[in-house]
């Protein structure tokens, strides 16, 4: 341990969107802030060039190659989740890939920024499934508005995100901060054909700028949201880290927090971190916010077994690490009957939400049916070449298949099951000697029932479009939306944090991120995590 | 950005505001409209509108190393603005930079150019401000510069030397169109304030009118008809497009202070005025510069993508930075695409000074025309951390771009870049003022020395 | 001009000289392309060209505007991945010259040995994907210059090279 004294009003572990937001808001309110990040701070152009130079390119178009490569650094002290860092205990592999760099996983998110709908907060009451949240949609609505402004969300006002083709839903007190992106031809033509069959198109609210937003330029359709927006038109967590820093916060990259220290009164006193050279350091503070991602946050809490908290920090309920959810889904490949040209503009946008809510949720989960909008060229070309297609036919087929290959994906809501969990690996350790996360995960009958329903739906869609189904992916595909591992609830016996995201066990400890979500919904969880983080910041600022 | 938003909000509303105020104020609506047009052509809003919803209320902060200068409130507020000014007082402030109480304005206010405003236009301007602009009872923060710049009277001396005190009047030799163009270029748009080089005392250099001048980090280029250094090779369409939109395809795009001029003023000029300005610019005497080749005709599509892609070690820093930062928008061969301009046949990369390229990299481009903001983020200190480039990277990429796409004789060093970085942190519209202030300072020093010498001789 | 290309090809095998060579070969390449253009491009491979990677590549891909710099880099890389590649190229070139094949379609319609077809596919694959070798050994030579992007450039961008702010939405050409 060094003699350097590190102390702040607010100590934040994790520099992603959640940690960055809390840090930034606290710093903007004049509080002293330290943000610790396990990974390094990276330059956009370095990531972009690493991506371009990589022979195997990670993309939403080659999901099976997830894990094969990422342009983000994998450091011995903060190994990339694209390698074999996560230990899979099965039976279903939980292949989530988060980023351990300043700014966090939003660097490579597709930037879908959805709100939940009111009934998502009352799953148990309404449908006898999962859990209710201790807060309602109305409680969170003002924070959703603020989160949309902070993150710079562009969206189409007046859309029914309930999927019924009605007016604005869920209810909102403010319009989107930026108007929606123009729909590429694909997203104009396909809805024309599906609408008569009762499928109401919804254009995804997202974090891409449609006018200069702060320092962010306008989205240029680089079609590279994952793995990196080359121009920074898409929101990522570095925006708030920068803001925090501009307001006096200290950012400590390459600082791997491995222990949280509490005292007999239940107060958190300090966090301990290691530098890449193995040296150990202590940071004290008044308030602590753990915002380290839904896999790393429970890992850190579980590693922090202290005299006062023998099961780990915040874990008197034994719920830390449990209730791991995702929006794992299935997929369908299709050749359209006419040229559709997916891949223009950014990577995602059009979804169908016919199964967003209803009595069916008693029997099978809410789901979202979405279209991939990724330039498919490299997958198509490799496929054709492996079949020996050459010459003029090769060019002809590349063009034809690029214009007509439609890739559908379905995301399901998953239930919080105590048996789906993150634990500490018994054997594997990283270069700092810290245990890696081990994940135990399975799908249940509820999810399987959803798969049946969605399959029927997908086939019907293909039929309406007159397309030829080329492939069904029916094994659960991880959608990189982990949640639930420090679940929110009003009962300290079966939940980790209260409605304010404050740990039941520790008054000055807050948990920010998707890990607090009581239900996953089928939607991308980032905006909900951001809204909750703003609420955390308000609480902390008012108490200091 | 605020100013952009304000302008967007305000300009379309002006006729409405005019109607509302005209009801109980003197002046016909034609006169008010004429005054509004004069105000637009003279680019008043650029400096006098600071906050959204308060047009012309002043308070726009110009950060300078000498302190912050705030623009004045020119709404008809009696307490804080020009409400108590009669037309003669208003005219004196505009044309001579002297307030009714005798206080001298700093020449951030381009009154040496405005001294040419005709009596008819000045009357219209006065009526417009008095009757169509809403009074705002807000007092801009007080400007308080340190010694010797707080001696506003020092401006008297400078004015004696350089203030023309002469109204514009058409001459017998010029056509009405050229006369109108001369009035717009020399008086209302005050082009020479930036484009005419300054002498030791920061007065305009004789015989160098519109011959190009340094403006802090930026260069206001030669806009005389000289074929090599000026705009002699530009077509009328290109010049008109540049003034109306800020872009002349495959030639130039307005950034920095010129972006502001297009944004706040020239985009709103009637086509006849644009044509008049072009006619006059074609007519002014050519000023020969250093250029050996027109700045818009350097370079070609190409690059090192084929030879360097995929290599991860020992890759030229200039190309690497170009590829990671520039090529995403300007494309791998520098050819640009849609809104993104090509890097060759571009006056920025073909200039005979490296400043505008370095300034563009450092500070970016932001220009709102016809409601649409063209924005290139800068890569200097104001950029997001992840996008900030070092002096070494900017040096390498600027030199790479000059060699590959522009004037290959240009070369910058890391210290040039560091210098630009500091210069450019000043508000761009402040640059013209600073140079004049420098002149005033020189004058003060000279007069001071002179006085000292006299005293010593007497002793 | 053929001799010129050959000398390039040989020296380009030395990896440490690749960067320098890239620029030089491009200049030379432009000259070659210019001459070809002036003379009228012929897709016939003469016996003397059978080891000319660029010419063989032209016939295999059906493109007469291949970049000589990339050709040199692909050839060097293929040789790095397959020591006997020069020999294979020689054999394939010989077959093409002997049979006077003018395009890959007629070549592949002939009774080509599997190993020669494999050689041809490795060359085509390199040009189209911009990548030589597989899995851990894969080496990227070209990204935006990979031929696979060409058939759709009027509609789709090469990912990470955007078309400009909100520059999409029109119905693509047929």
TrEMBL record, chain A:
InterPro entries: FAD/NAD-bd_sf, GMC_OxRdtase_N, GMC_OxRtase_C, P2Ox-like. Residues 225-326 form the Glucose-methanol-choline oxidoreductase N-terminal domain. It holds the Pfam family GMC_oxred_N. It comes from the Bacteria. Its cofactor is FAD. Keywords: FAD, Flavoprotein, Oxidoreductase. Residues 418-532 form the Glucose-methanol-choline oxidoreductase C-terminal domain. The keyword Flavoprotein applies. The keyword Oxidoreductase applies. Belongs to the GMC oxidoreductase family. This is Choline dehydrogenase. It comes from Gluconobacter kondonii.
Automatic annotation (TrEMBL), chain B:
Residues 30-133, 176-285, 313-405 form the Cytochrome c domain. InterPro entries: Cyt_c-like_dom (IPR009056), Cyt_c-like_dom_sf (IPR036909), Cytochrome_c-type_DH (IPR051459), Membr-bd_ADH_cyt_c (IPR014353). The chain crosses the membrane at residues 433-454. It is found in: Cell membrane. It comes from the Bacteria. Keywords: Cell membrane, Heme, Iron, Membrane, Metal-binding, Repeat, Signal, Transmembrane, Transmembrane helix. Residues 1-22 form the signal peptide. Coiled coil: none annotated. Its main location: membrane. It holds the Pfam family Cytochrom_C. This is Cytochrome c. It comes from Gluconobacter kondonii. The lineage of its organism: Bacteria, Pseudomonadati, Pseudomonadota, Alphaproteobacteria, Acetobacterales.
From TrEMBL, chain C:
This is Sorbitol dehydrogenase.
């Amino acid at each position: 341990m060094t003699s350097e004294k590190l102390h702040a009003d607010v100590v934040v572990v994790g520099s992603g969107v959640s940690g960055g937001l809390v840090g930034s808001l606290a710093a903007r309110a004049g509080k002293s802030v330290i943000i610790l990040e396990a990974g390094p701070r990276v330059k956009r152009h370095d990531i972009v060039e690493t991506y371009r130079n990589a022979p195997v390119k990670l993309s939403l178009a080659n999901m099976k190659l997830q894990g094969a490569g990422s342009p983000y650094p994998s450091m011995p002290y903060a190994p990339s989740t694209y390698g074999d860092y996560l230990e899979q205990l099965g039976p279903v592999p939980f292949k989530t890939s988060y980023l351990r760099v300043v700014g966090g996983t939003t660097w490579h998110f597709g930037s879908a920024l959805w709100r939940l709908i009111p009934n998502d907060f009352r799953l148990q009451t309404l449908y006898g499934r999962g859990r209710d949240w201790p807060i309602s949609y109305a409680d969170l609505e003002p924070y959703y508005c603020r989160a949309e402004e902070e993150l710079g969300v562009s969206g189409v006002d007046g859309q029914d995100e309930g999927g019924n083709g009605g007016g604005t839903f869920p209810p909102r007190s403010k319009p989107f901060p930026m108007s929606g992106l123009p729909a590429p031809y694909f997203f104009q033509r396909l809805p024309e054909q599906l609408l008569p069959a009762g499928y109401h198109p919804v254009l995804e609210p997202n974090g891409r700028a449609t006018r200069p937003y702060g320092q962010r330029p306008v989205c240029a359709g680089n079609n590279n949201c994952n793995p990196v927006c080359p121009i920074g038109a898409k929101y990522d967590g570095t925006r708030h880290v920068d803001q925090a820093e501009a307001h006096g916060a200290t950012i400590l990259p390459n600082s791997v927090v491995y222990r949280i220290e509490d005292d007999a009164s239940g107060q958190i006193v300090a966090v301990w971190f290691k530098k890449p050279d193995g040296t150990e350091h202590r940071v004290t503070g008044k308030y602590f916010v753990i915002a380290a991602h839904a896999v790393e946050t429970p890992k850190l809490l579980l590693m922090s077994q202290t005299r006062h908290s023998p099961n780990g920090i915040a874990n008197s309920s034994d719920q830390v690490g449990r209730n791991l959810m995702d929006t794992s889904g299935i997929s369908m490949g299709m050749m359209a009957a006419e040229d559709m040209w997916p891949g223009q503009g950014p990577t995602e946008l059009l979804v169908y939400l016919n199964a967003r809510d209803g009595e069916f949720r008693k029997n099978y989960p809410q789901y979202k049916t979405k279209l991939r909008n990724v330039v498919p060229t490299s997958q198509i070309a490799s496929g054709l070449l492996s079949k020996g297609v050459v010459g003029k036919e090769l060019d002809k087929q590349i063009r034809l298949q690029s214009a007509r290959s439609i890739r559908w994906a379905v995301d399901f809501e998953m239930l919080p099951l105590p048996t789906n969990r993150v634990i500490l690996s018994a054997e594997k350790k990283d270069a700092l000697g810290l245990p890696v996360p081990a994940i135990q995960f399975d799908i249940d009958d509820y999810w399987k029932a959803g798969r049946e329903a969605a399959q029927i739906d997908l086939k019907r869609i293909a039929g309406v479009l007159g397309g030829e189904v080329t492939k069904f992916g029916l094994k659960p595909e991880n959608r990189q939306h982990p949640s639930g591992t420090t679940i929110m609830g009003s009962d300290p016996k079966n939940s980790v944090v209260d409605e304010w995201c404050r740990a039941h066990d520790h008054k000055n400890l807050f948990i920010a991120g998707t890990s607090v979500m009581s239900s996953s919904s089928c939607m991308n969880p980032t905006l909900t995590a951001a809204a909750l983080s703003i609420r955390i910041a308000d609480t902390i600022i008012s108490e200091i | 950005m605020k100013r952009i938003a304000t302008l967007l909000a305000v300009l379309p509303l002006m006729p409405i505001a005019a109607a509302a105020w005209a009801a109980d104020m003197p002046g016909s609506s034609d006169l008010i409209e004429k005054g509004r047009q004069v105000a637009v052509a003279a680019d008043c809003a650029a400096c006098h509108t600071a906050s959204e919803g308060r047009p012309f209320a002043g308070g726009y902060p110009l950060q300078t190393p000498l302190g912050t200068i705030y623009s004045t409130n020119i709404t008809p507020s009696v307490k804080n603005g020009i409400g108590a000014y009669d037309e003669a007082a208003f005219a004196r402030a505009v044309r001579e930079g002297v307030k009714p109480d005798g206080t001298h304005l700093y020449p951030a206010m381009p009154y040496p150019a405005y001294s040419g405003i005709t009596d008819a236009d000045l009357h219209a301007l006065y009526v417009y401000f008095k009757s169509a602009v809403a009074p705002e009872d807000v007092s801009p923060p007080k400007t308080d510069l340190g010694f010797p710049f707080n001696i506003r009277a020092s401006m008297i001396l400078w004015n004696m030397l350089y203030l023309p005190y002469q109204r514009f009047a058409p001459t017998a030799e010029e056509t009405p169109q050229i006369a109108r163009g001369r009035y717009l270029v020399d008086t209302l748009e005050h082009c020479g304030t930036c484009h005419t080089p300054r002498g030791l005392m920061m007065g305009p250099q004789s015989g160098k009118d519109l011959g190009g001048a340094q403006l802090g980090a930026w260069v206001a280029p030669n806009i005389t008809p000289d074929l090599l250094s000026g705009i002699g090779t530009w077509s009328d369409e290109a010049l008109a497009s540049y003034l109306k939109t800020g872009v002349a395809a495959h030639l130039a795009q307005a950034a920095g202070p010129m972006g502001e001029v297009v944004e706040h003023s020239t985009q709103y000029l009637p086509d006849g005025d644009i044509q008049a300005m072009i006619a006059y610019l074609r007519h002014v005497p050519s000023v020969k510069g250093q250029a050996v080749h027109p700045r818009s005709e350097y370079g070609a599509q190409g690059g090192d993508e084929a030879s360097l892609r995929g290599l991860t070690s020992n890759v030229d820093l200039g190309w690497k930075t170009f590829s990671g930062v520039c090529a995403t928008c300007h494309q791998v061969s520098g050819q640009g695409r849609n809104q993104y301009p090509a890097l060759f046949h571009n006056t920025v990369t073909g200039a005979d000074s490296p400043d505008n390229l370095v300034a563009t990299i450092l500070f970016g481009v932001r220009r709102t025309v016809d409601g649409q903001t063209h924005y290139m983020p800068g890569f200097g200190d104001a950029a997001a951390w992840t996008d900030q480039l070092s002096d070494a990277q900017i040096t390498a990429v600027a030199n790479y771009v000059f060699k590959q796409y522009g004037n290959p004789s240009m070369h910058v060093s890391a210290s040039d870049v560091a210098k630009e970085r500091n210069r450019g942190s000043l508000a761009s519209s402040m640059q013209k003022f600073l140079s004049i202030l420098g002149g005033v300072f020189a004058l003060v020093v000279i007069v001071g020395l002179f006085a000292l010498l006299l005293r010593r001789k007497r002793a | 001009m053929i001799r010129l290309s050959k000398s390039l090809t040989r020296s380009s095998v030395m990896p440490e000289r690749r960067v320098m060579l890239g620029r030089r070969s491009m200049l030379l390449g432009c000259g070659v392309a210019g001459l070809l253009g002036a003379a009228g491009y012929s897709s016939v491979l003469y016996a003397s060209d059978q080891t000319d990677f660029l010419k063989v590549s032209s016939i295999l891909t059906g493109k007469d505007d291949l970049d000589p710099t990339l050709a040199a880099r692909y050839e060097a890389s293929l040789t790095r991945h397959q020591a006997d590649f020069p020999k294979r190229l020689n054999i394939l070139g010989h077959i093409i010259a002997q049979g006077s094949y003018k395009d890959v379609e007629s070549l592949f319609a002939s009774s080509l040995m599997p190993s020669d077809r494999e050689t041809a596919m490795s060359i085509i694959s390199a040009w189209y994907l911009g990548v030589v070798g597989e899995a851990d050994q894969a080496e990227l030579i070209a990204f935006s210059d990979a031929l696979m992007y060409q058939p759709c450039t009027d509609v789709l961008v090469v990912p990470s090279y955007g078309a400009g702010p909100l520059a999409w939405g029109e119905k693509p050409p047929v």
